[in-house]
Specification:
The protein has 260 residues and is an alpha/beta fold. It has a single domain (2-84, 155-255), classed as P-loop containing nucleotide triphosphate hydrolases (Rossmann fold). Helices cover 32% and strands 26% of the residues. The protein contains 9 helices and 12 strands. It has helices spanning 40-48, 70-74, 92-97, 107-120, 136-150, 172-187, 199-205, 223-226, 229-236; strands at residues 2-11, 14-24, 29-33, 58-60, 63-64, 77-80, 160-164, 191-195, 208-213, 216-221, 240-244, 251-255. The strands form 3 sheets. A 6-stranded mixed sheet has the order 6-7-8-3-9-10, with helices on both faces. A 4-stranded antiparallel sheet has the order 2-1-4-5, with helices on one face. Strands 11-12 form a two-stranded antiparallel sheet. The longest helix has 16 residues, at 172-187. The termini are far apart. The chain binds adenosine-5'-triphosphate. Adenosine-5'-triphosphate binds at residues 11-12, 14, 16, 34, 36-42. The site of adenosine-5'-triphosphate has 12 residues, from strand 2 and helix 1. Pfam families: ABC_tran. One of its GO terms (molecular function) is ATP hydrolysis activity. It comes from Motilimonas pumila.
Length: 260
């Protein structure tokens, strides 16, 4: 379990996060949603261990982040940051193999996992392509393969996947594919959190949605509980109608075009 209690963050005299209690359990996919500037990336960074002043408030598998040796954490805790800058002309397979650094497996096993991870996100055909030449969506899938490779093996400890806008830059088919994969990882017991802008994707794939507004948690619960017309109006300041999906039942949001 990954938990944060009473998480507050002020940067340059601005309150960014305000008294947030958060938990992420094994086997669930949690979507973090909210309008621009709500604090999603800041909470994501806090949970990822980017703010050393919050290390003691974030507890991973019973131990505060401050007590985790980096190499141990890397075995179970994989993070897809919003911007993964990399301009050196590495081949795609080499970028994915970065996820296998510090593994004690044989080179053969590492190569096998790299291939499997590339196949999972549909980039096997790009294995020898130069990373800087790829499109934005292809680069995103390379980094997903890299972090999947990082936690590929089921070990004795809980595994965590934290994804900041994993579907940004992806086309419709790959958005669905990546969230289906994230869901599949959670169904294998991995604790998965994803920052998502698309509320319909969150509704379809998340077990739980945490909705942020101005640095605080405004609502959390299952998609039907959180994605109500009233919540969306209060947090995103738009009028949306919420309908149940005709066969699957999860909420679908559509613009409210009804006359006043
Ligand atoms: N170093 C900083 N100093 C001052 N304010 C900051 C700093 N970093 C972030 N902020 C502010 O914190 C707020 C939350 O930012 P954050 O990036 O977490 O929002 P977000 O919900 O991820 O937004 P978006 O959907 O636009 O990515 C924003 O208003 C941002 O301007």
């Amino acid at each position: 379990m990954l938990t944060a209690s009473r998480l507050s963050l002020t940067l340059n005299h601005k309150v960014i996060l305000n008294d947030i209690d958060f938990c992420l359990n094994s086997g669930e996919l949690v979507a973090l949603v909210g309008p621009n500037g709500a604090g999603k990336s800041s909470l994501f960074k806090a949970l990822s261990g980017e703010y050393s002043e919050l290390f003691d408030k974030v507890v991973l598998a019973g131990k505060p982040l401050s007590e985790w040796p980096l190499t141990d954490k890397a075995q179970c805790f994989a993070i897809l940051a919003q911007q993964s800058l990399l301009s050196f002309p590495f081949k795609v397979a080499e970028v994915v193999s970065i996820g296998r650094t510090a593994k004690s497996c044989s080179a053969e096993r590492n190569n096998e996992v790299v291939k499997q991870a590339m196949a999972e996100v549909d980039i096997l055909h790009l294995a020898d392509a130069l990373y800087p030449h790829l499109s934005g969506g292809e680069k995103q899938r390379v980094h997903l393969a890299r972090i999947f490779a990082q936690i590929w093996e089921q070990q004795n400890q809980q595994r965590y996947l934290l994804l900041d806008e994993p579907t940004a830059a992806l086309d419709l088919a790959h958005q669905q594919q990546i969230l289906q994969l994230a869901k599949a990882w959670s169904q294998q017991g991995v604790a998965v959190m994803a920052v998502l802008h698309d509320l319909n994707l969150a509704a379809r794939f998340a077990d739980r949605i945490v909705m942020l507004k101005q640095g605080s948690i405004f609502a959390q619960g299952n998609p039907t509980e959180v994605l109500t017309t009233e919540h969306v109006k209060q947090v995103f300041e738009v009028d949306m109608q919420v309908l149940p999906h005709p066969t699957a039942g999860y909420p679908i949001l559509i613009p409210d075009e009804r006359l006043p």
